[in-house]
Protein backbone atom coordinates (compact mmCIF):
# COMPACT_ATOMS: atom_id res chain seq x y z
CA UNK A 1 0.00 0.00 0.00
CA UNK A 2 2.75 2.58 0.71
CA UNK A 3 4.04 2.19 -2.86
CA UNK A 4 0.50 2.45 -4.26
CA UNK A 5 -0.13 5.59 -2.23
CA UNK A 6 3.13 7.14 -3.39
CA UNK A 7 2.25 6.29 -7.01
CA UNK A 8 -1.24 7.81 -6.65
CA UNK A 9 0.03 11.00 -5.03
CA UNK A 10 2.59 11.39 -7.81
CA UNK A 11 -0.10 10.93 -10.48
CA UNK A 12 -2.30 13.50 -8.72
CA UNK A 13 0.45 16.10 -8.65
CA UNK A 14 1.86 15.64 -12.13
CA UNK A 15 -1.09 14.43 -14.25
CA UNK A 16 -4.54 14.48 -12.66
CA UNK A 17 -4.61 17.84 -10.88
CA UNK A 18 -3.11 19.77 -13.85
CA UNK A 19 -5.69 18.15 -16.14
CA UNK A 20 -8.59 19.06 -13.85
CA UNK A 21 -7.36 22.63 -13.49
CA UNK A 22 -7.29 22.94 -17.28
CA UNK A 23 -10.77 21.43 -17.65
CA UNK A 24 -12.47 23.55 -14.95
CA UNK A 25 -10.68 26.94 -14.98
CA UNK A 26 -13.82 28.77 -13.81
CA UNK A 27 -13.61 27.14 -10.36
CA UNK A 28 -10.02 25.83 -10.06
CA UNK A 29 -7.38 28.56 -9.88
CA UNK A 30 -4.53 26.08 -10.35
CA UNK A 31 -3.37 22.50 -9.68
CA UNK A 32 -1.91 23.37 -6.26
CA UNK A 33 -5.31 24.19 -4.69
CA UNK A 34 -6.86 20.78 -5.39
CA UNK A 35 -7.18 18.20 -2.61
CA UNK A 36 -8.34 14.56 -2.75
CA UNK A 37 -10.34 14.46 0.47
CA UNK A 38 -11.95 11.01 0.12
CA UNK A 39 -10.46 8.17 -1.93
CA UNK A 40 -11.58 4.54 -2.19
CA UNK A 41 -10.86 1.47 -4.30
CA UNK A 42 -14.14 -0.23 -5.25
CA UNK A 43 -14.73 -3.77 -6.52
CA UNK A 44 -17.74 -4.77 -8.64
CA UNK A 45 -18.81 -8.21 -9.84
CA UNK A 46 -22.01 -9.94 -10.93
CA UNK A 47 -23.28 -10.15 -7.33
CA UNK A 48 -23.73 -6.36 -7.21
CA UNK A 49 -26.74 -4.59 -8.74
CA UNK A 50 -26.39 -1.39 -10.68
CA UNK A 51 -25.65 1.38 -8.20
CA UNK A 52 -28.42 3.90 -7.64
CA UNK A 53 -28.19 7.20 -9.47
CA UNK A 54 -26.54 9.64 -7.07
CA UNK A 55 -24.36 12.74 -6.68
CA UNK A 56 -20.94 12.88 -5.02
CA UNK A 57 -19.94 14.73 -1.87
CA UNK A 58 -17.32 17.01 -3.38
CA UNK A 59 -17.14 20.00 -5.69
CA UNK A 60 -15.41 17.70 -8.21
CA UNK A 61 -15.06 13.94 -8.48
CA UNK A 62 -13.02 11.45 -10.47
CA UNK A 63 -13.12 7.77 -11.43
CA UNK A 64 -9.96 5.91 -12.45
CA UNK A 65 -10.25 2.50 -14.16
CA UNK A 66 -7.92 -0.03 -12.52
CA UNK A 67 -9.01 -3.19 -14.40
CA UNK A 68 -8.41 -4.04 -18.06
CA UNK A 69 -11.69 -3.90 -19.99
CA UNK A 70 -11.23 -7.56 -20.96
CA UNK A 71 -11.49 -8.63 -17.30
CA UNK A 72 -15.24 -8.07 -17.05
CA UNK A 73 -18.50 -7.76 -18.99
CA UNK A 74 -20.99 -4.96 -18.45
CA UNK A 75 -19.87 -2.16 -16.17
CA UNK A 76 -19.24 1.43 -17.16
CA UNK A 77 -20.75 4.62 -15.79
CA UNK A 78 -24.27 5.85 -16.50
CA UNK A 79 -24.86 9.61 -16.50
CA UNK A 80 -28.55 10.37 -16.14
CA UNK A 81 -28.59 13.44 -18.39
CA UNK A 82 -26.90 11.50 -21.21
CA UNK A 83 -29.56 8.76 -21.39
CA UNK A 84 -29.73 5.24 -20.01
CA UNK A 85 -28.10 3.60 -23.05
CA UNK A 86 -25.18 6.01 -23.36
CA UNK A 87 -22.61 4.41 -21.05
CA UNK A 88 -19.11 5.76 -20.50
CA UNK A 89 -16.69 2.83 -20.58
CA UNK A 90 -13.00 3.12 -19.73
CA UNK A 91 -9.94 1.04 -20.44
CA UNK A 92 -7.42 0.44 -17.64
CA UNK A 93 -5.66 3.70 -16.74
CA UNK A 94 -8.31 5.98 -18.18
CA UNK A 95 -9.98 8.53 -15.93
CA UNK A 96 -13.15 10.64 -15.95
CA UNK A 97 -13.65 13.95 -14.12
CA UNK A 98 -16.97 15.63 -13.34
CA UNK A 99 -18.65 18.14 -11.04
CA UNK A 100 -19.82 16.34 -7.91
CA UNK A 101 -23.41 17.43 -8.58
CA UNK A 102 -23.69 15.42 -11.83
CA UNK A 103 -26.16 12.56 -11.32
CA UNK A 104 -24.64 9.19 -12.24
CA UNK A 105 -24.47 5.51 -11.33
CA UNK A 106 -22.36 2.41 -11.95
CA UNK A 107 -23.72 0.04 -14.60
CA UNK A 108 -24.07 -3.60 -13.50
CA UNK A 109 -21.13 -5.94 -14.08
CA UNK A 110 -22.47 -9.20 -15.54
CA UNK A 111 -19.26 -11.27 -15.44
CA UNK A 112 -15.71 -10.95 -14.13
CA UNK A 113 -14.42 -8.30 -11.74
CA UNK A 114 -14.11 -4.55 -12.18
CA UNK A 115 -11.91 -2.41 -9.93
CA UNK A 116 -12.05 1.38 -9.93
CA UNK A 117 -10.57 4.16 -7.83
CA UNK A 118 -13.04 6.87 -6.91
CA UNK A 119 -12.11 10.20 -5.33
CA UNK A 120 -13.97 13.29 -4.15
CA UNK A 121 -12.04 16.51 -4.62
CA UNK A 122 -12.10 19.79 -2.72
CA UNK A 123 -10.49 23.17 -3.41
CA UNK A 124 -8.35 24.81 -0.72
CA UNK A 125 -8.97 28.43 -1.77
CA UNK A 126 -12.75 28.17 -2.14
CA UNK A 127 -15.34 27.87 0.65
CA UNK A 128 -18.33 25.94 -0.69
CA UNK A 129 -21.03 27.62 1.36
CA UNK A 130 -23.96 26.12 -0.58
CA UNK A 131 -22.67 22.56 -0.35
CA UNK A 132 -21.96 22.96 3.36
CA UNK A 133 -25.41 24.41 4.07
CA UNK A 134 -27.04 21.64 2.04
CA UNK A 135 -25.09 18.96 3.93
CA UNK A 136 -25.96 20.57 7.28
CA UNK A 137 -29.61 20.67 6.21
CA UNK A 138 -29.56 16.97 5.36
CA UNK A 139 -28.01 16.19 8.73
CA UNK A 140 -30.64 18.27 10.54
CA UNK A 141 -33.36 16.48 8.58
CA UNK A 142 -31.90 13.07 9.45
CA UNK A 143 -31.85 14.12 13.12
CA UNK A 144 -35.53 15.06 12.93
CA UNK A 145 -34.96 18.82 13.25
CA UNK A 146 -37.05 19.71 10.21
CA UNK A 147 -37.43 23.38 11.07
CA UNK A 148 -33.66 23.84 11.13
CA UNK A 149 -33.31 21.75 7.98
CA UNK A 150 -35.72 23.96 6.05
CA UNK A 151 -33.93 27.07 7.34
CA UNK A 152 -30.56 25.78 6.11
CA UNK A 153 -31.89 24.84 2.68
CA UNK A 154 -33.49 28.28 2.39
CA UNK A 155 -30.14 29.94 3.19
CA UNK A 156 -28.39 27.76 0.60
CA UNK A 157 -30.91 28.77 -2.05
CA UNK A 158 -30.43 32.45 -1.28
CA UNK A 159 -26.79 31.96 -2.25
CA UNK A 160 -27.56 29.76 -5.26
CA UNK A 161 -31.18 29.79 -6.46
CA UNK A 162 -30.26 27.12 -9.03
CA UNK A 163 -29.33 24.44 -6.48
CA UNK A 164 -31.77 21.71 -7.54
CA UNK A 165 -30.49 19.37 -4.82
CA UNK A 166 -31.29 22.00 -2.17
CA UNK A 167 -34.84 22.32 -3.54
CA UNK A 168 -35.35 18.54 -3.47
CA UNK A 169 -34.01 18.25 0.07
CA UNK A 170 -36.19 21.17 1.17
CA UNK A 171 -39.23 19.43 -0.33
CA UNK A 172 -38.37 16.21 1.51
CA UNK A 173 -38.00 18.08 4.79
CA UNK A 174 -41.54 19.41 4.24
CA UNK A 175 -43.40 16.24 3.29
CA UNK A 176 -41.16 13.83 5.22
CA UNK A 177 -42.22 15.33 8.53
CA UNK A 178 -45.86 15.38 7.50
CA UNK A 179 -45.98 11.64 6.78
CA UNK A 180 -46.46 11.10 10.49
CA UNK A 181 -49.94 12.65 10.27
CA UNK A 182 -52.73 10.57 11.78
CA UNK A 183 -53.87 9.18 8.42
CA UNK A 184 -50.34 8.91 7.01
CA UNK A 185 -50.94 11.57 4.37
CA UNK A 186 -49.48 15.03 3.86
CA UNK A 187 -51.73 18.02 4.69
CA UNK A 188 -52.66 19.79 1.41
CA UNK A 189 -50.93 23.07 2.30
CA UNK A 190 -47.63 21.32 3.04
CA UNK A 191 -48.01 19.09 -0.01
CA UNK A 192 -48.40 22.12 -2.28
CA UNK A 193 -45.29 23.72 -0.78
CA UNK A 194 -43.28 20.53 -1.40
CA UNK A 195 -44.70 20.11 -4.92
CA UNK A 196 -43.67 23.68 -5.72
CA UNK A 197 -40.08 22.96 -4.63
CA UNK A 198 -39.94 19.78 -6.72
CA UNK A 199 -41.31 21.50 -9.81
CA UNK A 200 -38.71 24.25 -9.42
CA UNK A 201 -36.01 21.57 -9.16
CA UNK A 202 -37.33 19.91 -12.32
CA UNK A 203 -37.29 23.21 -14.18
CA UNK A 204 -33.55 23.21 -13.46
CA UNK A 205 -32.92 19.49 -14.04
CA UNK A 206 -35.70 17.99 -16.22
CA UNK A 207 -33.92 14.60 -16.35
CA UNK A 208 -33.82 14.09 -12.57
CA UNK A 209 -35.61 10.76 -12.11
CA UNK A 210 -35.61 11.07 -8.30
CA UNK A 211 -37.43 14.40 -8.43
CA UNK A 212 -40.06 12.99 -10.79
CA UNK A 213 -40.46 9.99 -8.45
CA UNK A 214 -40.89 12.20 -5.38
CA UNK A 215 -43.39 14.34 -7.27
CA UNK A 216 -45.33 11.18 -8.16
CA UNK A 217 -45.40 10.09 -4.51
CA UNK A 218 -46.79 13.44 -3.39
CA UNK A 219 -49.36 13.72 -6.17
CA UNK A 220 -50.56 10.17 -5.49
CA UNK A 221 -50.83 10.95 -1.77
CA UNK A 222 -53.02 13.95 -2.64
CA UNK A 223 -55.34 11.85 -4.82
CA UNK A 224 -54.11 13.43 -8.05
CA UNK A 225 -53.69 10.04 -9.71
CA UNK A 226 -53.45 11.09 -13.36
CA UNK A 227 -50.74 13.63 -12.56
CA UNK A 228 -48.95 11.01 -10.45
CA UNK A 229 -49.02 8.52 -13.33
CA UNK A 230 -47.54 11.18 -15.61
CA UNK A 231 -44.75 11.96 -13.10
CA UNK A 232 -43.93 8.29 -12.50
CA UNK A 233 -43.98 7.60 -16.25
CA UNK A 234 -41.52 10.42 -16.86
CA UNK A 235 -39.25 8.98 -14.17
CA UNK A 236 -39.43 5.48 -15.69
CA UNK A 237 -38.36 6.79 -19.10
CA UNK A 238 -35.19 8.11 -17.43
CA UNK A 239 -34.48 5.27 -14.99
CA UNK A 240 -36.41 2.01 -15.46
CA UNK A 241 -34.26 0.09 -12.94
CA UNK A 242 -35.93 1.49 -9.81
CA UNK A 243 -38.14 -1.30 -8.44
CA UNK A 244 -40.17 0.94 -6.10
CA UNK A 245 -40.85 3.38 -8.92
CA UNK A 246 -42.07 0.65 -11.28
CA UNK A 247 -44.18 -0.89 -8.51
CA UNK A 248 -45.82 2.41 -7.55
CA UNK A 249 -46.67 3.12 -11.18
CA UNK A 250 -48.06 -0.40 -11.57
CA UNK A 251 -50.39 0.11 -8.60
CA UNK A 252 -51.81 3.32 -10.08
CA UNK A 253 -52.20 1.75 -13.52
CA UNK A 254 -54.04 -1.16 -11.94
CA UNK A 255 -56.36 1.25 -10.15
CA UNK A 256 -57.10 2.86 -13.54
CA UNK A 257 -57.94 -0.55 -15.04
CA UNK A 258 -54.93 -0.65 -17.38
CA UNK A 259 -54.00 -4.26 -16.62
CA UNK A 260 -51.62 -4.69 -19.55
CA UNK A 261 -49.44 -1.76 -18.48
CA UNK A 262 -49.77 -2.78 -14.82
CA UNK A 263 -48.35 -6.22 -15.65
CA UNK A 264 -45.57 -4.65 -17.72
CA UNK A 265 -44.51 -2.38 -14.85
CA UNK A 266 -44.68 -5.22 -12.32
CA UNK A 267 -42.39 -7.30 -14.53
CA UNK A 268 -39.98 -4.34 -14.72
CA UNK A 269 -40.04 -4.08 -10.92
CA UNK A 270 -39.28 -7.79 -10.61
CA UNK A 271 -36.49 -7.59 -13.19
CA UNK A 272 -34.89 -4.86 -11.07
CA UNK A 273 -35.46 -6.76 -7.80
CA UNK A 274 -36.18 -10.49 -8.34
CA UNK A 275 -37.03 -11.08 -4.65
CA UNK A 276 -39.66 -8.30 -4.54
CA UNK A 277 -42.51 -10.21 -2.86
CA UNK A 278 -45.13 -7.45 -3.15
CA UNK A 279 -44.57 -7.18 -6.90
CA UNK A 280 -44.86 -10.96 -7.34
CA UNK A 281 -48.11 -10.94 -5.34
CA UNK A 282 -49.62 -8.11 -7.38
CA UNK A 283 -48.55 -9.77 -10.61
CA UNK A 284 -50.34 -12.94 -9.54
CA UNK A 285 -53.50 -10.99 -8.71
CA UNK A 286 -53.41 -9.12 -12.03
CA UNK A 287 -52.98 -12.32 -14.05
CA UNK A 288 -55.60 -14.24 -12.06
CA UNK A 289 -58.08 -11.37 -12.35
CA UNK A 290 -57.61 -11.54 -16.11
CA UNK A 291 -58.47 -15.24 -16.06
CA UNK A 292 -54.97 -16.62 -16.65
CA UNK A 293 -54.81 -18.93 -13.64
CA UNK A 294 -51.90 -20.99 -14.95
CA UNK A 295 -49.72 -17.92 -15.49
CA UNK A 296 -50.66 -16.60 -12.03
CA UNK A 297 -49.35 -19.67 -10.19
CA UNK A 298 -45.63 -18.89 -10.49
CA UNK A 299 -46.05 -15.30 -9.21
CA UNK A 300 -48.12 -16.48 -6.24
CA UNK A 301 -45.55 -19.18 -5.40
CA UNK A 302 -42.73 -16.65 -5.61
CA UNK A 303 -44.71 -14.25 -3.44
CA UNK A 304 -44.96 -16.77 -0.58
CA UNK A 305 -41.31 -17.72 -1.08
CA UNK A 306 -40.00 -14.17 -0.76
CA UNK A 307 -42.71 -12.77 1.53
CA UNK A 308 -44.59 -15.58 3.36
CA UNK A 309 -47.43 -13.46 4.77
CA UNK A 310 -50.92 -14.74 5.52
CA UNK A 311 -52.31 -12.68 2.66
CA UNK A 312 -49.94 -14.21 0.12
CA UNK A 313 -50.72 -17.74 1.32
CA UNK A 314 -54.46 -16.98 1.05
CA UNK A 315 -53.97 -15.80 -2.53
CA UNK A 316 -52.17 -19.05 -3.38
CA UNK A 317 -54.88 -21.07 -1.62
CA UNK A 318 -57.62 -19.35 -3.63
CA UNK A 319 -55.71 -20.00 -6.85
CA UNK A 320 -55.42 -23.71 -6.07
CA UNK A 321 -59.12 -23.82 -5.17
CA UNK A 322 -60.06 -22.12 -8.45
CA UNK A 323 -58.03 -24.77 -10.30
CA UNK A 324 -59.74 -27.60 -8.40
CA UNK A 325 -56.61 -28.51 -6.42
CA UNK A 326 -58.27 -29.02 -3.04
CA UNK A 327 -55.34 -30.60 -1.21
CA UNK A 328 -52.96 -27.85 -2.25
CA UNK A 329 -55.56 -25.21 -1.41
CA UNK A 330 -56.08 -26.64 2.09
CA UNK A 331 -52.33 -26.84 2.68
CA UNK A 332 -51.81 -23.20 1.66
CA UNK A 333 -54.77 -22.04 3.76
CA UNK A 334 -53.36 -23.93 6.72
CA UNK A 335 -50.09 -22.05 6.38
CA UNK A 336 -52.01 -18.77 6.22
CA UNK A 337 -53.91 -19.57 9.43
CA UNK A 338 -50.70 -20.50 11.23
CA UNK A 339 -49.33 -16.99 10.80
From TrEMBL:
Family matches, as Pfam families: TPR_16 (PF13432)
Ranges occupied by TPR repeats: 130-163, 209-242, 277-310
Superkingdom of the organism of origin: Eukaryota
GO molecular function: metal ion binding; oxidoreductase activity
UniProt keyword NAD present: no
Family the UniProt entry places it in: Belongs to the iron/ascorbate-dependent oxidoreductase family.
Protein name in the entry: Fe2OG dioxygenase domain-containing protein
Keywords: Iron, Metal-binding, Oxidoreductase, TPR repeat
Organism: Phaeocystis antarctica
Domain Fe2OG dioxygenase: 35-124
Upper lineage: Eukaryota, Haptista, Haptophyta, Prymnesiophyceae, Phaeocystales
Amino acid sequence: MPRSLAWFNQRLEHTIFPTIAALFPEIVSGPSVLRAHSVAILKYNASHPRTDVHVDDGVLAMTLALSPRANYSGGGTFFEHMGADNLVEMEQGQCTFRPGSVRHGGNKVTAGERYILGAFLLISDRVEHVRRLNNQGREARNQGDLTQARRLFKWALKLNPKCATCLKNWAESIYGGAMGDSDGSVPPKLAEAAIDKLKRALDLLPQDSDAWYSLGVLLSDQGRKDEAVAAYTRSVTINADDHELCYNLAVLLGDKGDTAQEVLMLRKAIAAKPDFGCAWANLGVALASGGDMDAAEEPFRNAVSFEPTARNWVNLARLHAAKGQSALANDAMGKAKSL
